[in-house]
Amino acid sequence: MLQTFIQIVLVGLAVGAAYSLVALGYTLIWNAVSLVNFAQGDLVMLGAFVSVGWLANRLGMPLWLNLVTMLVILGFFGAGLAWGIYHPLRNAPQLSAIVATLGLSMALQNIAVIIWGPQPLNFAGPLGTTSVHLFGSTIYAQYLVILAALAAMMAIQHMLFQHTALGRAMRATAQDAEAARLMGIPTARIIAFIFAYATMLAALAGWLIAPLSYVSSDMGVNLSLRAFAATILGGFGSIPGALVGGLAFGVIESAGSFYISSEYIDVIAFGVLIAVLMFRPQGIFGELELERP
Amino acid sequence: MSAEENSLTMRTLATLVIATAILCGLLLPRFLSVYYLQVADVTLINILLVLGLNFILGFGGQMSLAQCAFFGIGAYAFTLLQAAGMPVPVAAVGAIALSAAVGMALGWPTLRLKGHYLALCTLAFALIVERLLVNWEGLTNGANGITAIPGIGLAGENDKMLWVLLAVVAIAYLLQVWIANGPLGLRIRALRDDPLAAQAVGVDISRLKIMLFVISAAYGGLAGICYVLLRGYISPDVFSWQSTFSYLAMAVVGGLGSPLGAVLGAILYTFVPELLRFMQEYYFAVFGVMVILVITFFPAGLSGMVLSAVRSLRRREKPFARSDVTQHERAA
To answer: Which stretches are transmembrane (chain B) (predicted)?
Structure first.
């Protein structure tokens, strides 16, 4: 009983960690420029495809070089998004910018099919289907890698935000871009950097979950919806919210599918989400952004 | 709603819309192949869905992503009521009533939410409805869907169905303009532009929002009925939560809050990709980029583009009436 429970929680946390990485991307971009980037999930897909389709299968790069190269490529791609999508629409109504990111999502998915073909790619990763025993339960080692990666990213992000000039500039831009610009911070460049960083987080999530699933053009769709739900659950615009929301949503899904029904897993997870919003409409860590009924 | 669409009297507009519908009904079957005629029928259903979305999103400014759920509820309710032995008109009224009732049920608990929170709640609702359609096999026959629906015997007859759809869309269009220009429309726009001020002058915001959900859902349910009549079979994938983003794109690309925009957006989104089929696998990629470009360069959408073109034409015709035009614009 207890073993099963531990296993469910661990798997839920690991899957949730991938949601958290994508959710952090939503949150950082939202804080910086008040834009919800619905193509965030497709950046996950793009990261996995670049890593598996090009760097691993075509060039046969060693693992660490593969990861670093992929992150650099996707980082530049993210900065390009800031310049190509956000910048021309920075004064447009919020909804227009959202639909532009939906257009981007559609374009990316179909470009991926053109480049890498309609067949999903397989990626065993260094660990394959190695399992580990932990507290008497058995789970894939890759799940632990995902959890470790999230922890490492959080540590790196903390260092970046608290102890570097770039991090301070990023925080200042997120808090009040206009004031930051007046203080001499090159906000356009900082915003491009935030987009690049958010894209790298999503791509890292894609790289991490690739061994557990196929790499396919639509792999980002479900992930982005769940990450969006996690962002809302945690409270929009809150970094700890994105973290906790992602993990919580993963555990809710994992537990719901085991104890109640795997067919109705979405109904349960999103039903819980709606119920939470009924009682705490601002999410777990969110600030009140409500209208009087 | 824009000045031009407003400045036409209801009677002129009705004449225009009905004339356009009759013209389309006469000309389209002559020039389009059977396949493209079916695409035209689907385009008309999409127009209906976007008109419905317009009420809550375009006029009310409330970010609802549940339109595909009402589409599905209308289609399944209509089918199942017919299967239970009800005549077509009763089943149709029942399906619209059920969609509207579910719209009310969704509108009430989500009243306090706004922005992304409302968007996600309605999206989650759409996803739950889709999952139920797939998994509740006893009622919906699951992923296989339901075939051989009797309807009114028009399934597959694209040219006759075209007339039915043109009539339904023309009525839905005029009803939307009529509502938007009436006292209810005034209150709806007040809600969108400044909810606090609207409340201060005595607009019952909660009732208004629920009403928007209900009208929007009823339009969605009606579109579902039209879909069943057109196809004669249904399966859950048509009502997938992901298609809700297509309706959103149609509404925004066409021009939010504009009935003309709903028409243009649906045509661009449904018909143009079919014409671009010669690009084969590239066309959805190109289309995604096209959506971005339209939004970037024409923020008011296609309808805004058309209307400003009309405006500048008028200005050119009457060079001496320039001051009148500017005054008119100032009033708008």
So the answer is: 12-29, 35-57, 90-108, 115-134, 161-180, 210-234, 246-272, 284-310
Alpha-carbon dihedral of residues B305, B307, B313, B319, nearest 10 degrees? -120
Check: CB of residue A235 under 8 Å from CB of residue A282: yes
Is the Cβ of A107 closer than 8 Å to some Cβ of chain B?
yes
Give chain B's end-to-end CA distance (angstroms, integer): 10
User: Token match 């051989």: residue?
Assistant: B148
Q: What are the beta bridge partners of residue A35?
A: none
Side chain identity at A164, as an amino acid letter? T
The residues facing A138 across adjacent strands are A133
| Contact (CB<8Å) A107/B282 | no
Q: Which residue has the tokens 């690991």?
A: A14
Question: Between the CA of residue A69 and those of A65, A153, A193, A195, what are the distances in Å?
Answer: 6, 17, 17, 17
| Spatial contact of A42 and A218, defined as CB atoms under 8 Å apart | no
SS3 category, A116: helix
- pLDDT tens digits, B241-265: 888 888 988 998 898 889 999 999 9
* Chain segment A6-41, per-residue pLDDT in tens: 889 999 999 999 999 999 999 999 888 888 888 999
CA-CA-CA-CA torsion sign (A173, A178, A181, A183)? negative
Q: Is A231 helix (H, G, I), strand (E, B) or coil?
A: helix
Contacts of B17 (CB under 8 A, 6+ apart): B170, B173, B174
Sequence-ordered list of residues with C-beta below 8 angstroms from that of B171, at least 6 positions apart, any chain = none
ipTM: 0.82
Find, among B242, B226, B248, B222, the residue nearest to B54 by Cα. B248
Contact pairs from chain A to chain B, CB under 8 Å: 132
A121 phi and psi angles, rounded to 5 deg: -95, 150
- Grouping H, G, I as helix, E, B as strand and the rest as coil, residue B240 is coil
Whole-model pTM: value is 0.86
User: How far away is chain A from the Cα of B301, in angstroms, using its nearest Cα?
Assistant: 9
B258 in Cβ contact with B59 (< 8 Å): no
Which residues of chain A have a CB within 8 Å of the CB of B285? 106-107, 110-111, 114
Expressed in percent and rounded to 5, the helix, strand and coil fractions of chain A are 75, 5, 25
DSSP secondary structure letters along A146-205 = HHHHHHHHHHHHHHHHHHSHHHHHHHHHHH-HHHHHHTT--HHHHHHHHHHHHHHHHHHH
Q: Determine the Cα–Cα distance for residues A105 and B54; give it in Å rounded to an integer.
A: 23
Which of B120, B241, B58 shows the shortest CA–CA distance to A289? B120
Q: Which residues pair with A140 in a beta bridge?
A: A131
